[in-house]
Structure formats: structure tokens, C-alpha cells
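pinging the channel bc i need a second pair of eyes. not urgent but kinda urgent?? the chain im working w is below, pasted from the shared doc
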Amino acid sequence: MTETALPLPATGSGTRAGAVFVVVAWRNLWRHRLRTWLAAGGVGFAILLVGVMVAFQDGIYGPWIENATSLSVGHMQVQHPGYFDDPKISHALAGGSSLVREIEEIPGVVGATGRAEAFALVSVGERSYGGLVMGVDAEREAAMFTLASYLREGEYLPRGDSAYLGSSLATNLGVELGDEIVALGSGKEGGVAALVLNVDGIFESGRADLDRTILQAPVEAVQSAFELGDSLHSVVLKIDDPERAEVLKPTVEARVPADARVLDWNELLPELKQGIRLDAISGQMMAALLIAVVAMSVVNSFIMTVFERTREFGMLIAIGMRPNAIVGMLTIEAACVWVLGAAIGIAACVAVVLPLNIVGVNMGQIVEGVDDFYAQLMVPDALRPQLSAGALLLAPGIMLAGTLLAALVPALRVRRMHPVEALREEE
């Protein structure tokens, strides 16, 4: 007598049969409640940790970029093609004033300011130190960047001959407010340039490289002293979304002269880009490791399920149920476990992230001495995780694939199962 398998339901009853499979699979899960809750809890815990980690990454990158660029670098800069690699005073852009106005009209640009820069010997009496003399538009600089807010004493460039210098440079020169300083350098045409300024403000940013080298002065005074005319060495931009700098860059390039070079913050601050990439990679590695561990626990759970239900599966095969149908039912059980875990994980993630986004996490209060380390990396003091589609969907999506794959591995044993041997398994 030939053994035949029972036929699957007809096409018209496919939806009803699928619903029956789901109901049966759901009921099977609760035959071992503790195991089901442990598996779902593991999935939920993995989703919680990965979701919170992604939320912290989503919440830190934007402020991190803003914190690093808001001091003076900006989100983008337009320069002479050779200035970034070789900052000679002759590498300047002609028609600086009109170029600034042209760039301000580009959609997505929220502010632009021009700078004239020259390396010079800053002297007071017999003391001399090298520094970067930066000619700026005081009003625009104060509105766009935070260096003006680090004023320790005095005022920020109140006059046409004012100097605003770093605290370390002021200490090295031995100057105080009201003192006169002289900056000596080479003009654009090769002659000696001399700029006499009065110290009207001293700043302390906490960045040693800035505090000991930067001297800001009105841009007109620097252009006049260094024979620049209306030329600028850089036009610094702020845009509405710094994370879209690479997307906006071609638009800016199309609006500036052909002999100008546009650099975004990725090029201006390569160490920042590397730091973000390193943080993202380390987060991905941790997430992959965590998901792998949880997937192994799901594998173990379903291995136990298959072994404990061997006789049941053998009986189902003996009465005509196809092995593929049993594998499908186990896959549905795995999907149900994932649904439980995803609900737990997403709910816990929202419950954790929303309050932290409001109050922030000050790492300096948690880990002593980390403030100085974060300041060097230009990381914001308060970390605020941010809920996003990535935080809420990435981890559940990966865990769904991991859970189904973990359940499929032991379920494939059913395909090689012989009914007679399976029925004797528990005898």
C-alpha cells in the first residue's frame, strides 16, 4: 500500500488554514510558558539595548558636529584651491564681499562670513610669538560662532583697531586690556606688513591650540595692512543641517567661481569624521555580538522544542502532515516569540529614551574626569538620545531575521525525521 501525504487546503481556504496555523502555533508556545517568556525576554532585551545605543548615536552625532564646527570652523568653507594645503597669503579669493552675498542666497545656507588670515609675529616690547591673525566681520562672527562667547575679559572687537586674542597668547606676551600690540608679517605683494592693534578682549576657549595662537581683528584692518584689497582667504558657511553638508556641497560649488574650492566639515575636520565613523563601527560590532548571543539562546530554545516534541511531530507526519508544514508552524512560533519580544523591547526603549532625551545624560557626573576628555573630542557635555526610525526599527528588523534563522536551524531536523523512529523516541 502506497503512503500518501494529506493534501494542503485548497487555494480558497488558504487564508483560513493560515489562521489555523497561527492559532495552533500561538497555543504551542504556552505549553512551556517560562521558556517562551525567557526567549521573548531575551529578544526584547536585545532590542532594548540596541535601540538605546542607536538612539544615543542618533542623538550625539548632530550635536557633536555642531559643537565641533560652531567654535570657528563652520559647516563649510569656500577657499582658494591651494589655501587649505598651503595657506599662503597670496592664496586669496578676489571680490570677497560680493562672494559672501552670493553664497548667502543659496538655499540651505543660514549664514556666511568672510575671513582674511595671515600668519604673523605678534610683538609687545621685547616679547614676540607667532600667531594667526584672523580678520573677521565682528557682527557676523558673533552671530554665527561661539568663540566670541568665550570672552574672559573686555569686549569683542568694539573698534576698528581692536584685538581679540587667546588667554595663553596674552599670557605669553604679558599683555592686558588696553595694551598695544604689533603684528608683523608679509603682505600679498611681498612687502612687510605691520598691523598695530589695541587689546580690547581676551578669550579662553579651553582649546590650547586656539588660546595660544588666535588673534582676531576687524577684517578691513587686516586687508589693509596685508595689501589684500577686497580679497578673502575663506568664506565660512553655516547650513541648516550639518549632516547634509555633502549633499549641499555640489549646490554651493555651482554658485561659486570656478577657481574656488568648497570644503565641508568632513574635510575641514577629518578627525571628527573619523571619530564618528569609529563610534558607529564600534556600535555595530556591539550590536552584532549582542544579537548573536540572543540568537543562540533562541536556537537552544527551539532545539529543546524539537527534541521534546519529536513524538508529536512523528505522529503528525504519520497521519499525513507534510514536514514542510511542521517547519512552517515552528517558524510561525518563532515569529510569535519575536512579536512578544519586539513589543517588550520597543516599549522599554521608548520608556528609557524619552526621559533621557528631556533631562540628558551628563557623563561628567557619572565618570569623574571625563569632561576634559570629552572637551578634547569636542563631544557635547550632555548626551541626549533621540528616537528615530533607525532606533525603533533597526534592532527589531535584525532580531526578526535572527529569530527566524535561529528557529529554522533546529526545525530542519523535522525534514529528516522518519515517523517510525520518531514515534519510538519517547517509548
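so The two ends are 26 Å apart (CA to CA). and The first strand starts at residue 76 and ends at 79. — does that match what u expected or am i reading it wrong
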